[in-house]
Amino acid sequence: MMTSGRIKVIIPEKPTSAFRPEQVGTDYLCILYCDRRIEQLDLKLRAIEKSQGTFMERLKTVFADELVPDEEIQYELNTMKAEVTEGHGRIIPIILAAEVI
Description:
Blueprint: E1 2-4, E2 7-9, E3 25-34, H1 41-50, H2 55-63, E4 73-75, E5 82-84, E6 91-100
Antiparallel strand pairs: 1-2, 3-6, 4-5
Helix pairs in contact: 1-2
């Protein structure tokens, strides 16, 4: 677990509990950064699981206008840091995709 001020990130104890290396395909770790509580998060996560399409398509469909548009986010390389250039949306998705072959 990592903590910093009011932020708490829980990292699974077992490496296989987050990513499953025995399953071929793409696995995603998605962090939704927001300056306030994301309302009905549990319902939205279930909606993503039940929807069709790629992970990004499902994420964008479920969170719709809450996500900051891709073209308005400037991500820094080699660090988890981003800057928003406009004022649309309030959630910045940070996504790690791991390809298991």
